[in-house]
Design a protein that fits this description.
A hairpin with a 2-residue loop joins strand 1 and strand 2. This protein has two domains: 30 residues; 286 residues, Rossmann fold. By secondary structure, the protein is of the alpha/beta class. An eight-stranded mixed β-sheet has the order 1-2-4-3-5-6-7-8, with helices on both faces.
Length: 320
């Protein structure tokens, strides 16, 4: 029995040493925000201080006198992933792609505890800060949850809603195991490790597993994701996401009275198709369009087609 005990202790020590070796190999310090602004900021980058140490970054493009459309990215993502939509919608609309706290070039304190409810409130504060009236709002994944919660909590800010593979319902069974990063994040130790390392390999594995065609997730796309997540405080905020928010339900979504379009990748392995039908059934008068062979990121996988569908929907529902 003693021999078995020694062997087990030895195996545990080997696992711990391997984990320590991986942490030492991949640990990465924060990248100063000014460095990231230099590398990724654009001429149409703008900033708005909404208080509490939060300075929202957003891309303000398209037709300056057009009706505004706000685009909200998903978990770990950033405003630049909407470039394909900005190109299409910008011909007729003012397009504002925003970075949530803990994402992109937005500055926020590391102790900001994020939830979709709080993120929706932050977007409302940003919209009021820049003097933005009622706007069409589109969101993907976490950004989709933020968008529909904005419509529920701050209906005066939303004139139309577009949900793109939106989060919010209790998660239906995924197609296959979740990305490794999400499995690691289930545990506090795992979250602590991710908050201190270069997560490029996890991002690559996660993103390419979430889309229909992995080739659309290019190395520069991954590098931008990884770099922007290393802004000061971002990784800690990302690890705080996930709890304490209003879940989707028929009763909550019945409060949404604006025209709503639901766009969904039929092959989304992360938020599977039943969630799309739940949104469609719960939001009265909503429209649903499903893309065969497309995964979790239609705005990246089929940017022109999904943006054209969004533009057609907005044309059918012009601002009063």
């Amino acid at each position: 029995m003693k021999i078995i005990a020694y062997v087990l202790v030895g195996l545990v020590l080997l696992v711990l040493l391997a984990g320590l070796g991986l942490w030492l190999a991949y640990r990465a310090p924060d990248i100063p925000l000014e460095t990231l602004k230099r590398d990724y900021g654009r001429p149409n980058s703008a900033y708005a201080d909404i208080g509490g140490g939060i300075r929202i970054h957003y891309l303000d493009g398209g037709k300056k006198d057009g009706r505004p459309v706000v685009l909200i990215h998903g978990f770990g993502d950033n405003s630049f992933s909407w470039d394909g939509w900005t190109k299409v919608l910008g011909a007729t609309h003012r397009v504002l792609a925003v970075d949530l706290p803990g994402h992109g070039l937005t500055d926020a304190p590391a102790d900001y505890v994020a939830s979709p409810d709080r993120l929706a409130d932050s977007i409302a504060a940003w919209a009021k800060k820049i003097g933005l009236g009622p706007a069409a709002v589109a969101g993907n994944s976490l950004g989709g949850a933020t968008a529909w919660l904005l419509a529920v909590r701050h209906p005066e800010q939303v004139r139309a809603l577009i949900l793109v593979d939106a989060a919010g319902w209790p998660m239906p069974p995924a197609k296959g195991p979740p990305p490794l990063a999400f499995r690691i994040m289930k545990y506090k130790l795992g979250r602590d490790i991710i908050a201190s390392i270069d997560s490029t390999p996890l991002i690559r594995e996660g993103l390419r597993g979430e889309v229909g065609d992995p080739k659309v997730i290019t190395d520069p796309f991954i590098a931008r994701w990884a770099a922007l997540q290393r802004a000061p405080g971002h990784r800690a905020i990302l690890m705080s996401l996930g709890g304490g928010s209003t879940p989707a339900s028929d009763a909550v979504l019945a409060n949404i009275k604006v025209p709503t379009l639901i766009l969904w990748g039929e092959a989304d392995p992360l938020i599977t198709l039943p969630a799309a039908h739940k949104f469609n059934a719960a939001i009265k008068g909503s429209e649903l369009k499903i893309y065969p062979g497309v995964g979790h990121l239609p705005m990246t996988e089929i940017p022109e087609q999904s943006a054209t569908d969004a533009a057609a929907f907005l044309a059918r529902h012009p601002q009063p």
